């Protein structure tokens, strides 16, 4: 019996993809399109996992789910770390951009919520609170979307299972 | 002969423990389906109730909007209006999520008709292509485009749901073989 390759490496690669593309300013706007980068990251991990399987191995939708899920979790963790670095190094504060973004969208921001976000902007509580809140939301959203991405990726790259007589002929 | 013997032995061993394992898998599949259906319904409900929540608790609505901010641009010009407010996601996203919920509800019927070996590739490419074509057309022509956006989203979401469920079903079938995470 052949050993199944590890799902960890494809998941780490997919997670890194998600983190980088979801953290960089402007590029991260791709996630506004139904979490595009997260879906692609899940699909990438699924594709890498499919590539590491032996040529005759079965590879279908379900095989992409776990690498996708793991990629989503890694993506959320790496992404939060990257966000933290971006805030520290370049004074890129997501709280400020969030308030501006909501105002640009023409929404009336409730006073309480604005105060809460203003609290996130102070250097002491900094955006740690926002990063942690963001991490929680990212874990939830990435886990869902990257799993779907992994399944979709695997379904698109699905290999047909060889007929039993073909399998037996080796 | 030896091969035939091994095959029979394997079949028998699967049969011996198979009934319990199969019923367990079915239970897992039902649980998985229920969780996905509940999650999709909750997701859609959160989108629909957001404008109504605004009247009672603006902060609650802001949190819902903050959550969906991560998955959608929330441009009010591209979002449906409801109860004196806009939905927290755009028309296309609303269509995708509504389609996903609809596809999840209809999945058992769909699976009975098509079986598990349905090929998704062509349909998914077609649905994504329809969405992109609509995006290009609506960028070039100044037409009121909320409903076409929602319709292409509905088509895509409706296909993603059975594809996802099929994958999850596939995955749950393997739990009994103990090779999910390695």
Written description of the protein model:
The complex is a heterodimer of chains A (about 170) and B (about 180). Chain A is mainly α and about 170 residues long. In chain A, helix 3 packs antiparallel against helix 6 (about 130-155). Chain A contains seven helices and no strands. Helix content of chain A is about 70%, strand content about 0%. Chain A has one domain. Chain A is elongated. Chain B is mainly α and about 180 residues long. Chain B has one domain (about 1-175). A two-stranded antiparallel sheet of chain B has the order 1-2. In chain B, helix 1 runs antiparallel to helix 2 and helix 1 (about 1-55) runs antiparallel to helix 3 (about 90-115). Chain B is flat and about 45 Å long. Mean pLDDT of chain B is about 75; it is low at about 1-25 and about 180. At the A-B interface, helix 3, helix 4 and helix 6 of A face helix 2, helix 3 and helix 5 of B.
Key features?
heterodimer, A: 170 residues, mainly alpha, 7 helices, disordered C terminus, B: mainly alpha, two-stranded antiparallel ribbon, 5 helices, 77% helix, flat, disordered N terminus
